[in-house]
């Protein structure tokens, strides 16, 4: 992704870069200062003043992000969106949360060129002064966004001023409790919330995976959706039903199960209600996929569970695989699904009989080419640098030469590109040129280069190379071990007796052959 110009030109008319340089030097002095010479009261005052400064800097950072957005700088620099720019370029840890702060406290530029007042002006003023921090702002916004829209405007203004004032003196947890009391005061009979409010607040989020590949599902359901979900759980989440740990557990709805088998399974069921709800949702989604209710294809890929696994991980039966939607799945689950003969769950070999070369006969990539593209290194995401859009959200881009200019629809000429980056390829300044490396360590990978101004030196080509976490970890582990336990130069290196066995066994090309190869190695030891 294009890098910003780190050097401030002499023609700059703004004093902000110089002020930030002064502040950076001042922070160095503060960091080097001796806190032990402060009295207890002085140390408490210093900590309070520093937190206030942090809050003020956060607000100023939001101003700069808003200005960047107004000028469309992220797109000009080749980023997919403002969120993508904040994540990659500014290193913002939670762009969604920062954007919510900006939407509530920022001054947006109108079509007339004038800047509008913030959505919550009193809260914005407190944030500007550093009297409230990010957590206070978030808790206040959560309450204010639930104020009924039918409430008269003056009452909405008073509610915002009241809660913002409370935020100056209370903790975020206290703001939430006090805000609920404020809502009860505004609408004691619950008559102001209508269907428009419910439609505005409905949402469902599938959050990022954690270190255990688990994901948190959060949302607000309208009454109809809640009622439908409750009915589904009532008939699919009964004790004994859809239990993945019990091979004799009936699947589907309660009415489809044998009563005696269901009773016996219920007696063996030790799951909590929450776990049964989870397993019922899994079973329902499997049934939806099996019945084909989601359609046959999505962006050229089959609507199935598509998984890419490393052959070495399959041999070891450890590690994680990648799905076409960008999620990670433990190898143990991959092997279990392979035993169930799920479609498009495969290990891609070096050669394939699928037609992948079409020349000029077709413009759009085939399903076989989409699957082969996903299986390539880094094929699970858009090929543009810094982009993380998964394979189910990308198109196939003629990376070597545009189809309209004579490009061929061959797998070696195609690369995954999300719709926004695909539309950003062109010959204009600020657009992207693309190509494919034919030689060197990046052979076969797609490079992207942002077009520079006429007469300016060309920007360097970049690739969207995903970090090799395993190799990086091994490198640091070796360094740590060498530092803590340096080798004795008098001791010869150990001899690995079974090394020749792994070299003589041909590489397996299926899950079954991988497991057989592993057993062969274990028996020979």
Automatic annotation (TrEMBL):
Q: What sequence ranges are listed for the domain HNH nuclease?
A: 368-423
Recorded hits in CDD domains, A to Z, give: HNHc
Where is the stretch described as Disordered?
A: 239-275, 447-467
Lineage top rank: taxon? Bacteria
Which InterPro entries did the record assign?
Answer: DUF222, HNH_nuc
- Residue ranges with Basic and acidic residues bias: 260-275
User: One Pfam family, short name please?
Assistant: DUF222
Q: What is this protein called?
A: HNH nuclease domain-containing protein
- Lineage of this protein's species? Bacteria, Bacillati, Actinomycetota, Actinomycetes, Mycobacteriales
């Amino acid at each position: 992704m294009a890098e910003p110009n780190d050097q401030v030109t002499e023609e700059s008319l703004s004093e902000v870069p110089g002020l930030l340089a002064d502040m950076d030097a001042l922070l160095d002095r503060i960091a080097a200062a001796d806190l032990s010479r402060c009295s207890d009261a002085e140390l408490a005052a210093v900590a309070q003043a520093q937190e206030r400064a942090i809050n003020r800097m956060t607000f100023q950072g939001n101003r700069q992000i808003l200005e960047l957005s107004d000028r469309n700088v992220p797109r000009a620099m080749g980023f997919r969106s403002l969120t993508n720019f904040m994540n990659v370029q500014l290193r913002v840890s939670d762009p969604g949360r920062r954007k919510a702060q900006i939407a509530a406290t920022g001054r947006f530029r109108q079509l007339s060129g004038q800047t509008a007042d913030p959505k919550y002006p009193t809260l914005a003023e407190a944030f500007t002064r550093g009297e409230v921090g990010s957590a206070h702002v978030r808790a206040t916004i959560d309450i204010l966004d639930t104020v009924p829209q039918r409430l008269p405007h003056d009452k909405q203004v008073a509610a915002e001023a009241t809660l913002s004032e409370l935020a100056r003196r209370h903790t975020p947890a206290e703001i939430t409790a006090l805000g609920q009391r404020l809502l009860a005061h505004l609408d004691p009979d619950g008559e102001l919330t209508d269907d428009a409010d419910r439609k505005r607040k409905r949402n469902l989020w599938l959050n990022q995976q954690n270190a255990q590949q688990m994901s948190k599902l959060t949302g607000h359901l309208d009454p109809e959706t809640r009622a439908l979900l409750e009915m589904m759980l009532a008939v699919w989440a009964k004790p004994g039903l859809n239990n993945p740990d019990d091979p004799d557990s009936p699947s589907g709805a309660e009415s489809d199960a044998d009563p005696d088998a269901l009773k016996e399974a219920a007696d063996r069921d030790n799951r909590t209600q929450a776990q049964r709800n989870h397993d019922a949702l899994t079973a329902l989604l499997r049934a939806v996929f099996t019945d084909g209710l989601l359609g046959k294809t999505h962006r050229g890929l089959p609507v199935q569970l598509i998984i890419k696994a490393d052959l070495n991980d399959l041999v070891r039966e450890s590690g994680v695989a990648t799905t076409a939607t960008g999620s990670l799945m433990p190898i143990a689950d991959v092997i279990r699904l392979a035993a169930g003969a799920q479609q498009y769950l495969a290990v891609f070999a070096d050669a394939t009989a699928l037609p992948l070369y079409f020349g000029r006969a077709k413009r759009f990539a085939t399903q076989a080419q989409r699957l082969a593209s996903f299986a390539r290194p880094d094929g699970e995401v858009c090929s543009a640098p810094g982009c993380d859009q998964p394979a189910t959200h990308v198109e196939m881009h003629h990376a070597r030469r545009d189809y309209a200019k004579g490009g061929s629809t061959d797998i070696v000429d195609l690369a995954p590109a999300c719709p926004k980056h695909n539309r950003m390829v062109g010959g204009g300044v600020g657009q992207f040129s693309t190509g494919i490396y034919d030689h060197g360590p990046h052979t076969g990978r797609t490079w992207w280069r942002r077009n520079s101004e006429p007469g300016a030196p060309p920007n360097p080509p970049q690739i969207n190379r995903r970090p090799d976490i395993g190799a990086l970890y091994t490198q640091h582990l070796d360094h740590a071990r060498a530092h803590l336990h340096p080798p004795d130069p008098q001791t010869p290196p150990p001899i690995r007796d079974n090394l020749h066995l792994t070299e003589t066994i041909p590489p397996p090309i299926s899950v079954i052959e991988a497991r057989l190869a592993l057993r062969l190695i274990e028996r020979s030891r």
